[in-house]
Automatic annotation (TrEMBL):
The protein's name: Anaerobic sulfite reductase subunit C
UniProt keywords, alphabetically: 4Fe-4S, Iron, Iron-sulfur, Metal-binding, Oxidoreductase
Recorded coiled-coil stretches: none
GO biological process: one example: sulfate assimilation
EC number: 1.8.1.-
Organism: Blautia obeum
Domain of life: Bacteria
Keyword flag Thylakoid: no
Phylogenetic lineage: Bacteria, Bacillati, Bacillota, Clostridia, Lachnospirales
GO molecular function terms attached to this record: 4 iron, 4 sulfur cluster binding; heme binding; metal ion binding; sulfite reductase (ferredoxin) activity; sulfite reductase activity
Domain 4Fe-4S ferredoxin-type intervals: 165-196, 197-225
PROSITE patterns: 4FE4S_FER_1, 4FE4S_FER_2
Cellular component annotations (GO), alphabetically ordered: sulfite reductase complex (NADPH)
InterPro entries found in the cross-reference section: 4Fe4S_Fe-S-bd (IPR017896), 4Fe4S_Fe_S_CS (IPR017900), NiRdtase/SiRdtase_haem-b_fer (IPR005117), Nit/Sulf_reduc_fer-like_dom_sf (IPR036136), NO2/SO3_Rdtase_4Fe4S_dom (IPR006067), NO2/SO3_Rdtase_4Fe4S_prot (IPR045169), NO2/SO3_Rdtase_4Fe4S_sf (IPR045854)
């Protein structure tokens, strides 16, 4: 079957299965899903074998941490899916629905403030797999960042989570050192000794937690862990930086519930073809935030 004889209906059908036409050919790229880029060695071997057996031998990685295997003939698509299924691998990740989740390596990174792998996997199971039948006005992307370093750009996704650690300051223990260890540890320069006492500008603090435990006089020995949520980010031809909700969420379940509200709000209020950023702009950030924060 040549590229000219593959109908638009057939091409659309397999695109919904995660197979994208290689431009100008009768071949397709399979988009094999991973859970935030994490695969077992056995799964990697299976994908390599599939690339040699059905495709052109290459594995490519997408910005959503899926793996694309190029050069698969149209009439081998179902056989390809059966081949990778033996290692629990599936294709997909297209369409106007929740897309596969991406995350940084905050679980193992020295700056990580949350278990980004575990959280993104829970989001994947609950909202990517669990919401497969939920039709949305457009695609909906979710990202998890382990800390304010923002490596995976959660604020450029429809919804993004960034781990937080809010320092708890006991200014009574502060000695007003001329060479303050907390000042030196703060990467954003928002911790200052003023009138002999350490102060932190709460409006400018990024809650990275770098200051915790740095003072030899125990001024900051702990910090409250939390989840900061951004909504309405996107990149591409039109770029929107997501805005953070005014509340930092103390529990994982509370944060996950807000994500669910955001998806369902988009389903119920978005217009066909518009991204969540455009829905928020049309309705107003304050109105959307109110809807997401109410019980």
């Amino acid at each position: 079957m040549s590229a000219l004889t593959i109908s638009k209906e057939d091409e659309k059908r397999v695109k919904g299965m995660g197979f994208l036409n290689n431009r100008g050919t009768d071949l397709f790229s399979a988009r094999v899903l991973t859970v935030n880029g994490k695969v077992t060695a056995a799964q990697h071997h299976c994908m390599a074998d599939a690339a040699e057996k059905f495709g052109n031998g290459n594995l490519l990685y997408t910005t959503r941490l899926s793996v694309e295997i190029q050069g698969i003939p149209y009439d081998k698509i179902e056989e390809f899916q059966a081949f990778i299924a033996k290692e629990g691998l599936v294709t997909g990740g297209t369409g106007a629905k929740v897309r596969p989740v991406v995350s940084c390596k905050g679980t193992t990174c020295q700056y990580g403030l949350l278990d980004s792998y575990a959280l993104s996997e829970e989001i994947y199971r609950r909202f990517y797999e669990g919401f497969q039948d939920v039709a949305l006005p457009h695609k909906f992307k979710i990202a998890v960042g382990g800390c304010p370093n923002n490596c995976v750009k959660p604020n450029l996704n429809d919804v993004g989570i960034i781990g937080q650690r809010i320092p708890e300051v006991n200014s009574e223990l502060c000695k007003g050192c001329k060479k303050c260890a907390i000042e030196a540890a703060c990467p954003n320069g928002v911790a200052k000794v003023v009138d002999g006492k350490i102060t932190i500008d709460e409006m400018q603090c990024r809650h990275c937690g770098r200051c915790v435990g740095k003072c030899p006089f125990h001024t900051i020995t702990n910090g409250i862990y939390g989840y900061k949520i951004y909504i309405g980010g996107r990149w591409g031809k039109k770029i929107s930086r997501g805005k953070s909700l005014s509340k930092i969420f103390a529990s994982k379940e509370e944060a996950l519930n807000v994500i669910e509200k955001a998806i369902l709000f988009f389903r119920d209020n978005g217009l066909k073809g518009e991204r969540f950023a455009e829905t928020i702009e049309r309705i107003g950030f304050e109105n959307v935030e109110k809807a997401l924060l109410q019980d």
